[in-house]
Amino acid sequence: MSATDDTALSGLATAPATGSKLSWAVADSWTMTRRELAHWRRRPAQVVVGLVFPVMMLLMFSHLIGGGRGVDGDFTPYLVPGMFTMTMAFGLEATMLAVTQDLGKGVVDRFRSMPMTDGALLVGRSVADMAQSVVGLAVLITVGYAIGWRWHGGLTSFAGAVGLLLLLRFAMLWIGVHLAMVAGRPEMVQAVQILVWPAAFLSNAIASPASMPPWLGALVEWNPMSATATAVRGLSGDPGVSGGSWAAAHAGLLAVAWPVFLVAVFLPSAVKRFRNLGR
């Protein structure tokens, strides 16, 4: 148990003895959130790597690999929103790794033995992950501007695009928590990486479905990441290339429906598995 975890336990031990269940839940969840945020200060290298990796991906595709398949003209306006989306999806791996490490070290069992609100640990994990995603997205937007990408929509559309990206990240977060509960070991993250990368590249993040075989293009357009990427491109005022299918025409609707569906499936399942640990 690290010093950070001991600090979190101290926060639980000194929690007020009175108050409603809601206030207890908020206090416990905030204690777990502070624990996760304290890890940023104690392990800054891990945070930096998480921020640098998507930047390297963006620069690699924009400058080294170059133009996109099926994209006419400047590739940057098409690529940057796609990289925003892929970054939100790749966050699944970081969530799964963090939860499996806590499971493997016995941290979860120790917290569960404390008089703590059930699920506070998962709430703390989710809040910290979303905070890191906001920081990572801000860094990526800054780099996007540095390489020539521009936002042509208004402030409202910008807020809507950020909301769609974070909604996708929230869905990926709970998929990661669920997979961590199923796997239970950090070693299994590698197996998930093998699945996440093909799923990410089977989207329109870096290539237009129009450049693919019809059956593959249709599959790509229904990918949740494709819906978010297309919706963000549309809100930016520079939609780029899109197909003529129903999924492409209603990308905004799917960019909300897909994450909501995924959260509805994986959040209750993750919480249920968390409650059944050790039974």
From TrEMBL:
GO terms for molecular function: ABC-type transporter activity. The keyword Ribosomal protein does not apply. Keywords: Antibiotic resistance, Cell membrane, Membrane, Transmembrane, Transmembrane helix, Transport. It is a multi-pass membrane protein. This is Transport permease protein. The chain crosses the membrane at residues 44-66, 78-99, 120-147, 159-182, 194-216, 247-271. Belongs to the ABC-2 integral membrane protein family. It is found in: Cell membrane; Membrane. It comes from Streptomyces gougerotii. GO terms for cellular component: ATP-binding cassette (ABC) transporter complex. InterPro entries: ABC2_TM (IPR013525), ABC2_TM_bact-type (IPR047817), ABC_2_transport (IPR000412), Nod_factor_ABC_transporter (IPR051784). GO terms for biological process: response to antibiotic. It holds the Pfam family ABC2_membrane. Its main location: membrane. Residues 45-277 form the ABC transmembrane type-2 domain. PANTHER family: NODULATION PROTEIN J.
